[in-house]
Design a protein that fits this description.
By secondary structure, the chain is α+β, with helices and mostly antiparallel strands. The chain contains 7 helices and 4 strands; from the N terminus they run ααβααβαβααβ. It binds flavin mononucleotide. The site of flavin mononucleotide has 9 residues, from strand 3.
Length: about 200
C-alpha cells in the first residue's frame, strides 16, 4: 500500500476485537505521529499511549460524569450535544472498547497546539491503516480539556501543568473476520477545491 492508498482507504473504525496490537506495530504508529510536522519545529506534542483497560475505563467514566452534569443549548455542535444526551442516559462508550487509546496533549499557550496535534493524529491513523489496524479520532477529552476532574487525572498520568489535551485516537484490530478495517472510501461531497 503506498501513501496515497493508505490515505484514501482510511476509514474510522468503531467496533474492535480485544486482540493485542503487536508492540512493533504500535511503535510504528507512534513514530508516525512523532514524525508529523510542527509549527516552528516545536515538537511539543505529548503522546499518552494507554493500553491499561482500567485507565481507559477511568477516563471514560470521568467523561461520562462531566457530560452528564453539562447542559445542552440551541445551536450546540451536534456531536457534543449527542455526547451529553447519551451520558445523561448512562453507558456512554465513546472509546468503542478499543484496546488502545492515544491521547495527544500540547502546550496550552502555544498557538499551533491543535494543528500540531491534528497532524500527528492523521499521520497515526494513516500508518494504522497501512498496518491493517483500525483507528478513530476521539474528541471527548479535547472538549473537556479544562474539566478539573479530567485535568487532575491526566496530571496523575504525567501531563504537565502547562499542557492540555487537543485530541485523541483509538487503535486496534477491527471486529471483522480478518481484523482489517473497512476501507470503502466515502464519497467527497464537500471540501471545495478552486484551482487558479
Ligand atoms: C476533529 C475530529 C473529531 C472527531 N471526533 C470523533 C469522535 O469524537 N468520535 C467519533 O466516533 N468519530 C470522530 N471523528 C471521526 C469522524 O466522524 C469521521 O472522520 C467522519 O465521519 C468521516 O468518516 P471516515 O473517518 O470513516 O472517513 C472525528 C474526526 C475529526 C477529524
Amino acid at each position: 500500500m503506498n501513501a496515497y492508498e493508505a490515505i484514501v482507504t482510511r476509514r474510522s473504525t468503531r467496533n474492535y476485537k480485544t486482540d493485542v496490537v503487536e508492540p512493533e506495530k504500535l511503535q510504528k504508529v507512534i513514530e508516525a505521529g512523532r514524525y508529523a510536522p510542527s509549527g516552528g519545529n516545536n515538537q511539543t506534542n505529548h503522546f499518552f499511549v494507554i493500553q491499561k483497560s482500567d485507565v481507559i475505563a477511568k477516563l471514560v467514566s470521568l467523561v461520562e460524569t462531566a457530560f452528564a452534569n453539562s447542559e445542552v443549548y440551541d445551536g450546540m455542535y451536534a456531536s457534543l450535544k449527542n455526547s451529553i444526551m447519551l451520558s445523561k442516559r448512562g453507558g456512554y462508550a465513546f472509546c468503542y472498547n478499543a484496546p488502545i487509546l492515544i491521547v495527544v496533549a500540547n502546550q496550552k499557550d502555544y498557538g499551533n497546539n491543535m494543528a500540531d496535534c491534528a497532524c500527528a493524529i492523521e499521520n497515526m491513523m494513516i500508518e494504522a491503516n497501512e498496518l491493517d489496524l483500525g483507528s478513530c479520532w476521539i474528541n471527548q477529552l479535547r472538549w473537556l480539556n479544562e474539566e478539573p476532574s479530567l485535568l487532575a487525572y491526566m496530571r496523575e498520568l504525567g501531563m504537565k501543568e502547562n499542557e492540555r489535551v487537543y485530541g485523541g485516537m483509538i487503535l486496534g484490530y477491527a471486529a471483522t473476520e480478518d481484523g482489517s478495517p473497512n476501507r470503502k472510501a466515502l464519497e467527497r461531497k464537500g471540501n471545495e477545491v478552486t484551482y487558479i
